[in-house]
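Cast an eye over my tokenised protein here and flag anything odd:

===
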Amino acid sequence: MDPVRRKSIHDAMVRLADGERAAFPVLFDELWPVLLAFVRRSVRHEQDAEDVAQEVFLRLCSRISDFDRERDGLSWAFGIAAYEILTHRRRAQRRQETYGPAELDEHVAPVASQEEIAIRGELLIALSEACALLSAEDRLNLGLGPELALLQSPGPTLRKRRQRALDRLREVWRRLYGQP
């Protein structure tokens, strides 16, 4: 970025921090394209990138009174953007985001042949047999039971229980069918 534009962003931030409302359009015009480009490099979908960039700008404006005039304004904005990107990723991970209609085409398997269908059927039967040898609690932890009562457990506890149930399933599979 050229030093003139960087200084213009910094000056607009200083003016906005001093309470000069006329500095907002200048700051927005200078900073928005830079922030959006920065966020686009780290966020998967265009709509999400725009949402995150808006959150960055909102947070920047709500915290403008905390802006240290001795620091570079663009660096401060990028710090806020990095935090918001991280927050967005954590939220997406917690939601275990699914694909929208546009992305489904990339991830849908092509039509299976009769042989593939038969193999999948055999694998499902084998998996059912292996799961039948697990305890009821392990089947619930793996989400195979009729209810998901254990979802009330804290996240780390549930993850650990699922991991242990998967380990036991692997052991049963090895006993029945050998190494995968």
Summary: The helical segments are 3-17, 23-40, 46-62, 73-95, 101-107, 114-132, 136-141, 155-177. Residues 73-95 form the longest helix (23 residues).
